[in-house]
Specification:
Elements (H helix, E strand, L loop, with lengths): L16 E5 L6 H8 L4 E4 L3 H9 L3 H6 L7 E5 L7 H12 L2 E6 L3 H5 L9 E5 L13 H7 L3 H5 L4 H18 L6 H13 L7 H8 L3 H13 L3 E4 L15 E4 L2 H7 L10 H21 L6 E5 L5 E6 L4 E5 L11 H9 L4 E6 L5 E3 L2 E5 H9 L5
Parallel strand pairs: 1-4, 1-5, 2-3, 3-4, 10-11, 11-13
Antiparallel strand pairs: 6-7, 8-9, 9-10, 12-13
Helix pairs in contact: 6-13, 8-12, 9-10, 10-11
Protein backbone atom coordinates (compact mmCIF):
# COMPACT_ATOMS: atom_id res chain seq x y z
CA UNK A 1 0.00 0.00 0.00
CA UNK A 2 3.01 2.31 0.14
CA UNK A 3 2.27 3.35 -3.45
CA UNK A 4 -1.05 4.83 -2.34
CA UNK A 5 -1.08 8.22 -0.63
CA UNK A 6 -4.34 8.41 1.28
CA UNK A 7 -6.36 11.61 1.41
CA UNK A 8 -7.55 10.79 4.93
CA UNK A 9 -4.70 11.66 7.34
CA UNK A 10 -6.54 11.21 10.67
CA UNK A 11 -5.23 14.64 11.69
CA UNK A 12 -7.80 14.88 14.48
CA UNK A 13 -5.85 12.19 16.36
CA UNK A 14 -3.06 14.71 16.97
CA UNK A 15 -5.24 16.38 19.59
CA UNK A 16 -8.28 14.15 20.22
CA UNK A 17 -9.33 10.56 20.44
CA UNK A 18 -10.94 9.25 17.27
CA UNK A 19 -13.26 6.49 16.12
CA UNK A 20 -11.97 5.46 12.68
CA UNK A 21 -14.74 3.59 10.84
CA UNK A 22 -14.34 1.74 7.58
CA UNK A 23 -15.22 -1.57 5.96
CA UNK A 24 -12.73 -4.41 6.21
CA UNK A 25 -9.65 -4.09 3.96
CA UNK A 26 -10.12 -0.42 3.08
CA UNK A 27 -6.68 0.12 4.63
CA UNK A 28 -7.31 1.42 8.17
CA UNK A 29 -4.43 -0.42 9.83
CA UNK A 30 -1.96 0.44 7.08
CA UNK A 31 -2.96 4.10 7.17
CA UNK A 32 -2.40 4.31 10.92
CA UNK A 33 1.00 2.61 10.65
CA UNK A 34 2.05 5.11 7.99
CA UNK A 35 0.77 8.23 9.77
CA UNK A 36 1.44 7.24 13.40
CA UNK A 37 4.23 4.64 13.30
CA UNK A 38 5.07 5.01 17.02
CA UNK A 39 1.56 4.43 18.36
CA UNK A 40 0.98 1.49 20.70
CA UNK A 41 -1.32 -1.01 18.97
CA UNK A 42 -3.79 -3.54 20.34
CA UNK A 43 -4.99 -5.72 17.45
CA UNK A 44 -8.13 -7.62 18.43
CA UNK A 45 -7.91 -9.73 15.28
CA UNK A 46 -5.00 -11.52 17.00
CA UNK A 47 -6.49 -14.39 18.94
CA UNK A 48 -4.13 -14.09 21.93
CA UNK A 49 -4.72 -10.34 22.26
CA UNK A 50 -8.45 -10.81 21.92
CA UNK A 51 -8.62 -13.63 24.47
CA UNK A 52 -6.69 -11.92 27.26
CA UNK A 53 -8.51 -8.58 26.92
CA UNK A 54 -11.89 -10.26 26.66
CA UNK A 55 -11.14 -12.16 29.87
CA UNK A 56 -9.88 -9.08 31.75
CA UNK A 57 -10.67 -5.74 30.03
CA UNK A 58 -8.99 -3.90 32.93
CA UNK A 59 -5.63 -5.15 31.63
CA UNK A 60 -5.82 -2.27 29.13
CA UNK A 61 -5.90 0.30 31.94
CA UNK A 62 -3.27 -1.48 34.00
CA UNK A 63 -0.83 -1.65 31.07
CA UNK A 64 -1.37 1.92 29.90
CA UNK A 65 -0.95 3.46 33.36
CA UNK A 66 2.78 3.04 32.88
CA UNK A 67 2.72 5.27 29.79
CA UNK A 68 2.97 9.04 29.93
CA UNK A 69 0.20 11.50 29.19
CA UNK A 70 -0.52 12.23 25.53
CA UNK A 71 0.26 8.62 24.62
CA UNK A 72 -1.44 7.55 21.36
CA UNK A 73 -2.99 4.08 21.49
CA UNK A 74 -4.64 2.19 18.63
CA UNK A 75 -7.28 -0.49 19.26
CA UNK A 76 -8.08 -2.33 16.04
CA UNK A 77 -11.58 -3.82 15.61
CA UNK A 78 -12.87 -2.28 18.85
CA UNK A 79 -16.37 -3.69 18.28
CA UNK A 80 -15.07 -7.17 19.12
CA UNK A 81 -14.72 -6.23 22.83
CA UNK A 82 -17.12 -3.37 23.58
CA UNK A 83 -16.31 -3.58 27.32
CA UNK A 84 -12.91 -1.99 26.58
CA UNK A 85 -14.63 1.34 25.98
CA UNK A 86 -15.20 1.84 29.73
CA UNK A 87 -11.43 1.51 30.26
CA UNK A 88 -10.76 3.80 27.30
CA UNK A 89 -13.15 6.38 28.75
CA UNK A 90 -11.34 6.32 32.10
CA UNK A 91 -7.91 6.66 30.50
CA UNK A 92 -9.00 9.61 28.35
CA UNK A 93 -10.49 11.47 31.33
CA UNK A 94 -7.91 10.63 33.98
CA UNK A 95 -4.66 10.14 32.08
CA UNK A 96 -5.04 12.19 28.90
CA UNK A 97 -4.39 9.14 26.72
CA UNK A 98 -5.44 9.57 23.10
CA UNK A 99 -6.96 6.67 21.21
CA UNK A 100 -7.64 5.72 17.61
CA UNK A 101 -10.45 3.18 17.87
CA UNK A 102 -10.80 1.31 14.58
CA UNK A 103 -13.93 -0.54 13.65
CA UNK A 104 -15.77 -2.08 10.73
CA UNK A 105 -19.14 -1.83 12.45
CA UNK A 106 -20.70 0.47 15.02
CA UNK A 107 -23.84 -1.68 15.07
CA UNK A 108 -22.77 -4.06 17.80
CA UNK A 109 -21.63 -1.19 20.02
CA UNK A 110 -24.92 0.68 19.61
CA UNK A 111 -27.08 -2.45 19.85
CA UNK A 112 -25.84 -3.39 23.32
CA UNK A 113 -25.85 0.18 24.59
CA UNK A 114 -22.09 0.39 24.88
CA UNK A 115 -20.32 3.45 26.26
CA UNK A 116 -19.48 5.50 23.14
CA UNK A 117 -17.38 7.89 25.22
CA UNK A 118 -19.95 10.66 25.55
CA UNK A 119 -18.60 12.70 22.66
CA UNK A 120 -14.97 12.43 23.84
CA UNK A 121 -13.95 10.76 20.57
CA UNK A 122 -14.49 12.24 17.13
CA UNK A 123 -15.83 10.04 14.33
CA UNK A 124 -14.06 9.82 10.96
CA UNK A 125 -14.36 7.42 8.06
CA UNK A 126 -12.02 5.70 5.65
CA UNK A 127 -13.42 4.63 2.29
CA UNK A 128 -12.00 2.39 -0.42
CA UNK A 129 -9.32 4.00 -2.55
CA UNK A 130 -10.23 7.02 -4.62
CA UNK A 131 -8.73 8.04 -7.94
CA UNK A 132 -6.61 10.83 -6.40
CA UNK A 133 -4.77 8.28 -4.23
CA UNK A 134 -3.63 6.07 -7.10
CA UNK A 135 -0.73 7.13 -9.35
CA UNK A 136 -1.64 6.53 -13.01
CA UNK A 137 -5.20 5.63 -12.02
CA UNK A 138 -6.80 3.25 -14.53
CA UNK A 139 -10.52 4.01 -14.78
CA UNK A 140 -11.47 0.73 -16.49
CA UNK A 141 -9.47 -1.25 -13.93
CA UNK A 142 -11.25 0.52 -11.08
CA UNK A 143 -14.64 -0.16 -12.66
CA UNK A 144 -13.85 -3.87 -13.03
CA UNK A 145 -11.78 -4.62 -9.91
CA UNK A 146 -13.26 -2.16 -7.44
CA UNK A 147 -11.25 0.14 -5.21
CA UNK A 148 -10.28 -1.98 -2.22
CA UNK A 149 -6.46 -1.79 -2.23
CA UNK A 150 -5.73 -5.52 -2.56
CA UNK A 151 -8.44 -6.00 -5.18
CA UNK A 152 -7.49 -3.01 -7.32
CA UNK A 153 -3.88 -4.26 -7.50
CA UNK A 154 -4.74 -7.89 -8.23
CA UNK A 155 -4.28 -9.30 -11.71
CA UNK A 156 -7.46 -11.29 -11.17
CA UNK A 157 -9.38 -10.26 -8.03
CA UNK A 158 -12.01 -13.02 -8.25
CA UNK A 159 -10.50 -15.33 -5.61
CA UNK A 160 -9.92 -12.44 -3.24
CA UNK A 161 -13.49 -11.24 -3.72
CA UNK A 162 -14.77 -14.79 -3.13
CA UNK A 163 -12.96 -14.91 0.22
CA UNK A 164 -13.88 -11.34 1.12
CA UNK A 165 -17.59 -11.79 0.49
CA UNK A 166 -17.66 -15.21 2.15
CA UNK A 167 -16.09 -13.94 5.37
CA UNK A 168 -17.14 -10.31 5.57
CA UNK A 169 -20.59 -10.08 4.06
CA UNK A 170 -21.81 -13.33 5.63
CA UNK A 171 -19.71 -14.56 8.56
CA UNK A 172 -19.36 -11.13 10.16
CA UNK A 173 -23.13 -10.67 10.05
CA UNK A 174 -23.48 -14.10 11.67
CA UNK A 175 -20.83 -13.32 14.30
CA UNK A 176 -22.70 -10.22 15.36
CA UNK A 177 -25.82 -12.37 15.89
CA UNK A 178 -28.04 -9.77 14.27
CA UNK A 179 -29.81 -12.06 11.80
CA UNK A 180 -31.95 -15.04 12.77
CA UNK A 181 -32.84 -16.27 9.26
CA UNK A 182 -29.42 -16.57 7.64
CA UNK A 183 -30.77 -18.28 4.51
CA UNK A 184 -33.21 -15.41 3.95
CA UNK A 185 -30.47 -12.87 4.63
CA UNK A 186 -28.16 -14.53 2.10
CA UNK A 187 -30.94 -14.33 -0.49
CA UNK A 188 -31.36 -10.71 0.46
CA UNK A 189 -27.66 -9.99 -0.20
CA UNK A 190 -28.11 -11.22 -3.77
CA UNK A 191 -31.30 -9.20 -4.17
CA UNK A 192 -29.58 -6.11 -2.79
CA UNK A 193 -26.92 -6.56 -5.48
CA UNK A 194 -29.60 -6.72 -8.17
CA UNK A 195 -31.01 -3.48 -6.74
CA UNK A 196 -27.57 -1.85 -6.62
CA UNK A 197 -27.88 1.69 -7.98
CA UNK A 198 -31.66 1.35 -8.26
CA UNK A 199 -34.59 2.81 -6.37
CA UNK A 200 -35.54 0.54 -3.49
CA UNK A 201 -38.95 -1.16 -3.42
CA UNK A 202 -39.08 -2.90 -0.07
CA UNK A 203 -42.27 -4.82 -0.82
CA UNK A 204 -40.93 -6.41 -4.02
CA UNK A 205 -37.64 -7.41 -2.36
CA UNK A 206 -39.53 -8.86 0.60
CA UNK A 207 -41.58 -11.09 -1.70
CA UNK A 208 -38.43 -12.39 -3.40
CA UNK A 209 -36.70 -13.07 -0.07
CA UNK A 210 -39.70 -14.62 1.66
CA UNK A 211 -39.70 -12.14 4.55
CA UNK A 212 -41.71 -9.05 5.47
CA UNK A 213 -41.04 -5.54 4.15
CA UNK A 214 -40.22 -4.49 7.73
CA UNK A 215 -37.53 -7.19 7.85
CA UNK A 216 -36.09 -6.04 4.51
CA UNK A 217 -35.80 -2.49 5.86
CA UNK A 218 -33.96 -3.88 8.88
CA UNK A 219 -31.64 -5.86 6.59
CA UNK A 220 -30.74 -2.69 4.69
CA UNK A 221 -30.08 -0.98 8.02
CA UNK A 222 -27.71 -3.80 8.91
CA UNK A 223 -25.79 -3.28 5.65
CA UNK A 224 -25.49 0.43 6.39
CA UNK A 225 -24.42 -0.01 10.02
CA UNK A 226 -21.86 -2.66 9.14
CA UNK A 227 -20.55 -0.29 6.43
CA UNK A 228 -21.31 -2.76 3.64
CA UNK A 229 -23.63 -0.39 1.81
CA UNK A 230 -25.35 2.96 1.92
CA UNK A 231 -28.56 4.62 0.89
CA UNK A 232 -28.56 7.55 -1.51
CA UNK A 233 -31.57 9.71 -0.58
CA UNK A 234 -33.92 11.25 -3.10
CA UNK A 235 -33.84 14.99 -3.77
CA UNK A 236 -37.44 15.90 -3.09
CA UNK A 237 -37.40 19.73 -3.12
CA UNK A 238 -38.96 19.72 -6.57
CA UNK A 239 -41.02 22.79 -7.44
CA UNK A 240 -42.84 21.88 -10.66
CA UNK A 241 -42.67 18.10 -10.96
CA UNK A 242 -43.58 15.37 -8.48
CA UNK A 243 -40.37 13.73 -7.28
CA UNK A 244 -39.86 10.09 -6.32
CA UNK A 245 -39.07 9.88 -2.59
CA UNK A 246 -37.64 6.35 -2.18
CA UNK A 247 -33.85 6.04 -1.76
CA UNK A 248 -31.35 4.20 -3.94
CA UNK A 249 -28.99 1.57 -2.54
CA UNK A 250 -25.29 1.08 -3.34
CA UNK A 251 -22.81 -1.45 -2.03
CA UNK A 252 -19.81 0.37 -0.57
CA UNK A 253 -17.50 -0.76 -3.38
CA UNK A 254 -18.21 -1.36 -7.06
CA UNK A 255 -16.00 -4.47 -7.08
CA UNK A 256 -18.17 -6.11 -4.43
CA UNK A 257 -21.31 -5.30 -6.42
CA UNK A 258 -19.70 -6.69 -9.60
CA UNK A 259 -18.89 -9.96 -7.87
CA UNK A 260 -22.35 -10.41 -6.38
CA UNK A 261 -23.87 -9.67 -9.79
CA UNK A 262 -21.43 -12.02 -11.57
CA UNK A 263 -20.19 -9.12 -13.70
CA UNK A 264 -16.63 -9.39 -14.99
CA UNK A 265 -14.44 -8.10 -17.81
CA UNK A 266 -16.76 -5.14 -18.31
CA UNK A 267 -16.27 -3.43 -21.64
CA UNK A 268 -17.13 0.12 -22.53
CA UNK A 269 -20.38 0.30 -24.45
CA UNK A 270 -22.13 -2.43 -22.48
CA UNK A 271 -25.05 -1.79 -20.13
CA UNK A 272 -23.18 -3.39 -17.22
CA UNK A 273 -20.17 -1.15 -17.82
CA UNK A 274 -22.47 1.88 -17.64
CA UNK A 275 -23.96 0.77 -14.31
CA UNK A 276 -20.54 0.08 -12.79
CA UNK A 277 -19.18 3.38 -14.14
CA UNK A 278 -21.99 5.31 -12.44
CA UNK A 279 -21.40 3.38 -9.19
CA UNK A 280 -17.70 4.26 -9.17
CA UNK A 281 -18.43 7.94 -9.70
CA UNK A 282 -20.99 7.98 -6.88
CA UNK A 283 -18.36 6.26 -4.72
CA UNK A 284 -15.89 9.05 -5.47
CA UNK A 285 -18.43 11.77 -4.65
CA UNK A 286 -19.35 10.20 -1.32
CA UNK A 287 -15.69 9.93 -0.30
CA UNK A 288 -14.91 13.48 -1.44
CA UNK A 289 -17.79 15.03 0.52
CA UNK A 290 -16.74 13.09 3.62
CA UNK A 291 -13.02 13.85 3.41
CA UNK A 292 -13.63 17.53 2.67
CA UNK A 293 -15.99 17.69 5.69
CA UNK A 294 -18.73 19.15 3.53
CA UNK A 295 -22.11 19.89 5.09
CA UNK A 296 -23.85 19.33 1.76
CA UNK A 297 -25.80 16.15 1.12
CA UNK A 298 -25.49 13.98 -1.97
CA UNK A 299 -28.81 12.84 -3.43
CA UNK A 300 -30.40 11.80 -6.72
CA UNK A 301 -33.46 13.23 -8.50
CA UNK A 302 -36.16 11.37 -10.36
CA UNK A 303 -39.63 12.56 -11.26
CA UNK A 304 -42.80 10.55 -11.63
CA UNK A 305 -42.70 11.38 -15.35
CA UNK A 306 -39.25 9.78 -15.72
CA UNK A 307 -36.73 12.63 -15.70
CA UNK A 308 -33.64 11.74 -13.68
CA UNK A 309 -30.34 13.19 -12.50
CA UNK A 310 -27.77 10.81 -11.02
CA UNK A 311 -26.27 13.19 -8.45
CA UNK A 312 -27.50 16.41 -6.86
CA UNK A 313 -25.27 18.30 -4.45
CA UNK A 314 -26.74 20.27 -1.57
CA UNK A 315 -29.85 22.31 -2.19
CA UNK A 316 -29.67 21.89 -5.97
CA UNK A 317 -26.73 24.12 -6.86
CA UNK A 318 -25.00 21.29 -8.76
CA UNK A 319 -26.53 18.47 -10.83
CA UNK A 320 -24.45 15.71 -12.45
CA UNK A 321 -25.24 12.93 -14.92
CA UNK A 322 -22.86 10.01 -15.49
CA UNK A 323 -22.87 8.66 -19.05
CA UNK A 324 -20.36 6.10 -20.32
CA UNK A 325 -20.99 7.19 -23.93
CA UNK A 326 -17.98 8.24 -26.00
CA UNK A 327 -19.87 11.27 -27.32
CA UNK A 328 -22.63 12.91 -25.31
CA UNK A 329 -25.61 14.03 -27.35
CA UNK A 330 -28.57 16.28 -26.57
CA UNK A 331 -30.71 13.27 -25.58
CA UNK A 332 -28.30 12.58 -22.72
CA UNK A 333 -28.98 16.01 -21.18
CA UNK A 334 -32.79 15.80 -20.90
CA UNK A 335 -32.77 15.11 -17.17
CA UNK A 336 -30.38 17.98 -16.47
CA UNK A 337 -32.36 20.40 -18.62
CA UNK A 338 -35.56 19.44 -16.79
CA UNK A 339 -33.78 20.00 -13.48
CA UNK A 340 -32.60 23.44 -14.65
CA UNK A 341 -36.22 24.43 -15.26
CA UNK A 342 -36.69 24.14 -11.51
CA UNK A 343 -33.22 25.34 -10.46
CA UNK A 344 -32.18 27.89 -13.06
CA UNK A 345 -28.85 28.67 -11.36
CA UNK A 346 -27.73 25.04 -11.02
CA UNK A 347 -24.41 24.07 -12.53
CA UNK A 348 -25.09 21.21 -14.96
CA UNK A 349 -22.46 18.57 -15.76
CA UNK A 350 -22.39 15.36 -17.78
CA UNK A 351 -19.40 13.14 -16.94
CA UNK A 352 -18.67 10.93 -19.93
CA UNK A 353 -16.04 9.11 -21.96
CA UNK A 354 -15.74 12.08 -24.34
CA UNK A 355 -12.19 12.84 -25.46
CA UNK A 356 -12.29 16.54 -24.53
CA UNK A 357 -14.34 18.96 -22.41
CA UNK A 358 -17.00 21.00 -24.20
CA UNK A 359 -20.32 22.82 -23.73
CA UNK A 360 -23.62 21.48 -25.08
CA UNK A 361 -26.76 23.59 -24.71
CA UNK A 362 -25.58 25.08 -21.44
CA UNK A 363 -24.36 21.76 -20.04
CA UNK A 364 -20.68 21.10 -19.29
CA UNK A 365 -19.42 17.87 -20.84
CA UNK A 366 -16.43 16.61 -18.86
CA UNK A 367 -14.34 13.52 -19.66
CA UNK A 368 -14.36 11.18 -16.68
CA UNK A 369 -10.67 11.61 -15.85
CA UNK A 370 -10.96 15.41 -16.07
CA UNK A 371 -13.95 15.31 -13.74
CA UNK A 372 -12.11 13.18 -11.18
CA UNK A 373 -9.06 15.46 -11.25
CA UNK A 374 -11.18 18.60 -10.84
CA UNK A 375 -13.24 16.95 -8.09
CA UNK A 376 -10.19 16.23 -5.94
CA UNK A 377 -8.77 19.69 -6.69
CA UNK A 378 -11.94 21.10 -5.11
CA UNK A 379 -13.23 22.61 -8.36
CA UNK A 380 -16.48 20.62 -8.69
CA UNK A 381 -18.22 20.55 -5.31
Amino acid sequence: MSEFVRVQKILDAQEDSVFLWGARQVGKSTLIKNVYPNAKVYDLLKSDEYTRLLRRPQLLREELLSFGEETLVVIDEIQKIPQLLDEVHWLIVNRGVRFILCGSSARKLKRIGTNLLGGRALSVKLYPLVSAEIPDFDLVRGINHGMLPRHYLATNPKKRLDAYIGTYLKEEIQDEAVVRQLAAFNRFLDMAAQCNGEIINYKNIAQDCGVSAVTVKEYFTILEQTLIGYMLPAFTASKKRRAITAPKFYYFDVGVANHLLHRSNLQQGSVDFGHAYEHLMIQELIAYLSYSESDEQLSYWRTASGYEVDAVIGDGRLAIEFKSAEEVQSKHTKGLKAFSEEYANARLIVVSMDANPRMLNGVEILPAMDFLRLLWEGKIC
